[in-house]
Amino acid sequence: YKIDDDGEIEPLNNHQQEEVDSKTLYAESIKKGLENGNIYPYYQPVLTSDGEELHGVEALARWEHPEKGLVPPIDFIDHAEEYDFIDWLDEVICRRACKDMKELMDQTGKRFMLSVNISAVHIRKQDFADRIEAILYETGFPAEYLAIEITETSLIDNLSDVAVTFQQLKNLGVKIAIDDFGTTYSSLNYLKYLPVDTIKLDKTFIHDVDKSPIDRRICKTIIQLGSDLDLNVVAEGVECDQHLSIIQDFGCHIYQGYYFSKPLTLDGWKTYLEQF
Ligand code: C2E
Ligand code: CA
Ligand code: CA
Ligand code: CA
Q: Given the CA of residue 73, which atom of ligand 1 is nearest to it?
């Protein structure tokens, strides 16, 4: 059944029913992937000082599908949100990344930030901070090196509800970053109401920063805002030398993008780390 425009309940036609069935099946296969360990993180380096120093790494979910090969998050994150298991997915990635990076830190003696993506839908759950605390405890990963990147795909209508959760995270020592800054509904409200450490300048603003005067002004303004508020600003999607030099001129010194490295497998990341 579906609810029509007048709020009346109407049966679905055959075509609509098939669509629902195939979506449900797809959601089930994503859950299988989570159960079997076939959804796990890739790691993209985050650099500073012209790329000569390491700032950290971002864990990005990938699904190793038995038939389709490596599936990008755009093909499964939305489903996990719609079918209400994004919390499970986020935690699988977070736990795995904390475990693997803790091991790597112990092996190498190196320290770097680890960023994980958390859907805003997930943060609204009451026990979110407790679950992160449990993962830190279980893996031994140092809280002060963990950053939570909040990705907003739906509106958080009551920020005061989540403010408590954020304060709990801060008390643990975890850092808080706003992902895709400037592209989402409540970017500025987040800064007003929540204890944010970092904003991530979305790659859509960086992409044409060398060609488009308006994009240039947006980048400059966001970087300035970040600096006025004493926040770290991380630029994502840095693909070339021009991108890098423009944002550096604007005062942004933490960056991530294909210019430095694509997201890597765990082994690829271990090798990359050797140069620092
Ligand atoms: P995001 O958090 O904004 O991550 C940046 C995306 O840009 C990643 O795409 C990354 O591979 C890509 N990227 C990095 N450098 C460049 C570049 O120089 N050029 C271009 N064109 N792209 C670049 P990816 O890995 O496909 O992830 C897409 C989105 O999926 C992420 O965007 C994030 O919102 C979401 N996501 C990924 N993993 C998770 C997760 O574990 N949980 C949740 N809730 N969302 C996740
Ligand atoms: Ca992110
Ligand atoms: Ca995003
Ligand atoms: Ca982004």
A: 30
Spell out the residues 6+ positions from residue 123 whose beta carbon is closer than 8 angstroms to its own.
Answer: 150, 156, 162, 165
What is the predicted ipTM? 0.98
The mean pLDDT value for 52-58 works out to 97
Q: How far is the CA of 179 from the centre of ligand 4 (A)?
A: 6
CB of 93 sitting under 6 A from ligand 1? yes
pLDDT tens string 200-210? 999 999 999 99
Give 225-263 pLDDT, tens digit per residue.
Answer: 999 999 999 999 999 999 999 999 999 999 999 999 999
Three-state SS sequence of 48-103: EHHHCEEEEEEEEEEEEECCCEEECHHHCHHHHHHCCCHHHHHHHHHHHHHHHHHH
Nearest CA to ligand 1 atom 33: 117
CA dist., res. 145 & res. 143, Å (int): 5
For residues 253 and 243, give the distance between their C-alpha atoms in angstroms, rounded to a whole number: 12
Say how many Å lie between the CA of residue 116 and the centre of ligand 2.
7
Q: What is the pTM of this model?
A: 0.94
Residue minimizing CA distance to atom 3 of ligand 1: 180
For the CA of 259, the nearest atom of ligand 1? 18
For the chain, percent of residues with pLDDT exceeding 90: 78
Residue nearest to atom 34 of ligand 1 (CA): 151
Backbone angles phi, psi at 160, to 5 degrees: -65, -30
Ligand nearest to the CA of 149: 2
The structure tokens listed for 230 are 């004493």
